[in-house]
Amino acid sequence: MSGFVEKPEPLQVPGLVHLHTGKVRELYQNEAGDLVMVASDRISAFDWVLPTEIPDKGRVLTQLSLWWFDQLADLVPNHVLSTDLPAGAPADWAGRTLVCKSLQMVPVEAVARGYLTGSGLVEYKESRTVCGLALPEGLVDGSELPAPIFTPATKAEVGEHDENVSYEEVARQVGADTAARLRQATLAVYSRGRDIARDRGIILADTKFEFGLENNDTLVIADEVLTPDSSRFWPADQWQPGRAQPSYDKQYVRDWLTSPESGWDRKSEQPPPPLPEQVVTATRAKYVEAYERLTGTSWS
């Protein structure tokens, strides 16, 4: 069992209909039929949404996504219509809210990997493959792959694991044409992100995207893009294959939760405890540092 330690009550805003509470985002619909996406400061780990928030996290994710959408605009259109705050919305929504196109979402996590780690490493150790793609012998945790690969996953409900699937399974689910375009767009966006990050001293090890179809045809990138929540960012000057890499994400949270200090047993069905202040501070600093290094601007 997992999910929310305490599922929040969504804020009711005049003129907006609440549609969904995700791990991080609240989704509303306005009177024009557009989606209003609000990124909270919630953080998840091990399929649990934790009871402790990370200050500024929602704004960092939103502003970093907007920066990346600009960098990627020539490759793929995105879903953003406006960053204006809806009438009647609380002031706290400023900087964390996007008004977006309502799309027919493709029910696939579009994952690109340029380095071997995480669930890809687990599968590789068993079969020398990732999502059915054969890889060379001798790779270790953190190895750079010969070329980036598209390793899709099924989208799971909050509290459930995404499951890696083969490209052939994606083609069966969404059709051969959409699957081919999904793979092409995923690898193109990953490659652009990898090159930009590399110029800033960051390795983009892997990342996941969500895409939707506009008017049943045009592929549009949605949700968030190339953030510390959706990507593994590693400091390039500390990259050392054969071990777990330092990262710009919630690794501090994972490390504390699995340490004796937390007193939490991951294998139990008990929810994780609140995070101590030093873990919150260190995690926030990592998100802010990723934003500043990638965009070249200071977080204020």
Characterise the protein shown here.
It is built from six helices and 18 strands. The chain has 300 residues and is of the alpha+beta class. The protein has a domain of 135 residues: ATP-grasp fold, B domain (D-amino Acid Aminotransferase, Chain A, domain 1, 2-Layer Sandwich), CATH 3.30.470.20. Helix 1 packs parallel to helix 6, helix 3 packs across helix 4 and helix 5 packs antiparallel against helix 6. The radius of gyration is 19 Å and the shape is globular.
By DSSP, the count of extended strands is 18
The averaged pLDDT comes out at 94
Q: What is the string of SSEs from the N terminus onward? A: EEEEEEHEEEEHEEEEEHHEEEHH
Classified by CATH, the class of the domain at 104-238 is Alpha Beta
Q: Output the CATH homologous superfamily of the domain at 104-238.
A: ATP-grasp fold, B domain
Structural class given helices, strands, pairing? alpha+beta
Radius of gyration: 19 Å
- Kindly estimate the percentage of residues that lie in beta strands according to DSSP: 25-35%
Shape: globular
Helix content percent band: 25-40%
The CATH architecture of the domain at 104-238 would be: 2-Layer Sandwich
Task: Please outline what is shown here.
By secondary structure, the protein is an alpha+beta fold. It contains six helices and 18 strands.
